[in-house]
Design brief:
With 538 residues, the chain is α/β, with parallel strands linked by helices. Helix content is 40%, strand content 14%. The protein has an 11-stranded mixed sheet with strand order 15-14-13-12-7-6-4-5-2-1-17, with helices on both faces. The radius of gyration is 26 Å and the shape is globular. Its main location: cytoplasm. It comes from Paucibacter sediminis. It is found in: Cytoplasm.
């Protein structure tokens, strides 16, 4: 509150904003009352007001234009606030949230498109909208897709395999080979624990997991348990020791390989890198190569997520969810995380569905990615609080010997395996330059590749689609500056998967006959993939 109390806009800037606003508002009013100019039906330049109903109704057109002017002025005011960088960024974010929420398109009384539809359907659209609203109230979230159209294991997460190991923390999936021969070194994927693994296996034609199997890799995937009340005391150390470290041990035992290839995606990459640092401190180097997809290791600056993290906010989490909370540790509910991520892009992931579902009575179409996005997971409070404090807040993971995990002082520089580091250019969760900073932490051979699009679409980009492009440096040099690297990078059309596949194959060893059955005598198949854990709801 003290920080907010000291904020101000310079008088000169405020006077200029007022003058500009009055000038534009006056012009807008004059145009609206002029028959000739009003008949011109000006384009509003915003997809929320793209329907003919907005421009056909003079009052609605004026209201939309006035809203856009007010929104622009508020955003300009937020830009002019004097204060420290983080506080100013928070104000800009709060203003943007207010601006997006107050759009006239979000209200039935102000939305001529929804009103017209109600008249055309004799009120049926409103009745349907109320039914959809009540269904979402019961679900506890705004529906972004037809959630009845998908079932895990039936039409998403369908790559054939078996559960070959399970403990309290995860199930280990081994996928059925699709080639007669496989590489001698197996391949282990560690997905984020804040989401379910099947983002990597949505459909056969966009499945990174299936792609790896098709390339002749004996592929294993960690399927995290969705924590319930019995898991609320789990710590970061518990996760590291009993999930990635155990998974590596089991994959080595099943395959008989001394070293394996491993991949971590998002938080899964942070967890995997931490586990490998623990093992390095124990004198073990179990991976032949490490792939990190949109992963944070150096948390110096992380875009919009930094707005939510400071000493006060982390302390509040520790007091309510952490191991020393007065009522004991608790769970961070999955829906809270999902809602937070949705409001990072509110027009696309919140208000778009409020208008479509409730005002127009249009059920959202079936979309596998959004079904996965809504299939949320809980997190144990102690684990989450440790992660917040020691990475986002204090950025200690990158500092050799600064952190003790599983009883070991860790140094990520002691991981000797070559590392393939991928970032997505429009990623708002892990900004690409943040992903690039990992190149300055690891000591082994490194390769950085930049893909187009965002956090998910950039990663899930199969070659057969022929979409987007990726950038690779002209040389192997990885300067400290991400922008300096980009200046020397070359754009290549299509998916980055082919580049990564060639790199991975170079570390996978010779080919040998594919196994005829999953697991081995000590780790027999428990149930078919995708297993029980991924089907648990938050």
């Amino acid at each position: 509150m003290k920080t907010l109390a000291g904020l101000q806009i310079p008088m000169q800037s405020l006077a200029q904003l007022q003058a500009d606003y009055l000038k534009q508002a006056t012009a807008l009013w004059n145009n609206s009352v002029s028959p000739e100019k009003a008949a011109a039906k000006p384009k509003l330049g915003d997809r929320r007001f793209a329907a003919e109903a907005w421009s056909a109704n003079p009052a609605s057109s004026f209201m939309a234009q006035l809203y856009l002017l007010n929104a622009q002025t508020l955003q300009r005011m937020a830009e002019q606030v004097e204060g420290d960088a983080k506080t100013r960024a928070r104000i800009r974010f709060a203003v943007q949230q207010f601006v997006d929420a107050s759009a006239p398109s979000n209200f039935l009384a102000l939305n001529p498109e929804a009103q017209s539809l109600a008249l055309q359907t004799q009120g049926e659209s409103i009745a349907k909208g109320m039914q959809l609203l009540w269904a979402d109230v019961q679900r506890g979230h705004v529906s972004q897709t037809d959630e009845n159209a998908f079932e895990v294991g039936r039409n998403v997460a369908t790559t054939a395999g078996d559960i070959v190991f399970e403990n309290e923390f995860f199930q280990l999936i081994e996928y059925k080979p699709l080639t007669k021969e496989v590489h001698e070194r197996p391949f282990l994927l560690v997905p984020p624990c804040i989401n379910k693994f099947y983002i990597l296996d949505l459909q056969p034609d966009n499945s990174l997991i299936r792609y790896a199997v098709e390339q002749g890799h004996r592929t294993f995937v960690v399927s995290w348990r969705n924590p319930d009340e019995s898991c609320k005391a789990w710590t970061w150390d518990d996760y590291i020791e009993h999930a990635p470290i155990k998974a590596i041990e089991v994959v080595q035992a099943i395959s008989g390989a001394k070293t394996i290839n491993a991949l971590g995606f998002c938080v899964g990459g942070t967890i995997l890198a931490t586990a490998l640092a623990v093992l390095a401190a124990r004198g073990q180097q179990p991976v032949e190569s490490l792939t990190l997809l949109t992963t944070l290791i150096d948390f110096s600056s992380n875009g919009i997520l930094d707005l939510f993290v400071d000493e006060a906010s982390v302390k509040l989490r520790e007091m309510t969810l952490g191991p020393d909370a007065p009522k004991g540790p608790g769970l961070l509910k999955g829906q809270e995380l999902a809602t937070t991520f949705s409001f990072l892009r509110p027009n696309d992931l919140v208000w778009n569905y409020v208008v479509g579902n409730y005002l127009k009575g249009e059920a959202p179409p079936a979309f596998d990615l959004l079904y996965w996005n809504g299939d949320s997971t809980n997190l144990p409070g102690p684990m989450y609080c440790w992660y917040l404090r020691h990475t986002y807040l204090q950025n200690e993971l990158r500092i050799p010997g600064q952190l003790t995990v599983c009883g070991e002082a860790i140094d990520l520089g002691e991981i000797k395996a070559p590392v393939y580091i991928y970032g997505s250019r429009e990623d708002h969760i892990v900004p690409w330059d943040s992903a690039y900073r990992s190149t300055q932490v690891f000591s082994g051979k490194k390769r950085f590749v930049l893909g187009a699009s965002g956090h998910i679409a950039g990663v899930i980009n199969p070659p057969a689609k022929g979409k987007r492009s990726h950038w690779i440096g002209k040389t192997a040099a990885l300067p400290a500056s991400a922008n300096e690297w980009l200046e020397g990078a070359v754009e290549h059309p299509g998916s980055w998967w082919t580049d990564w596949s060639a790199w991975l194959a170079s570390h996978a060893g010779a080919m040998k006959p594919a196994p005829k059955a999953p697991g081995h005598r000590s780790y027999k198949a428990i149930e078919p993939a995708p297993g029980r854990y991924v089907k648990q709801k938050a």
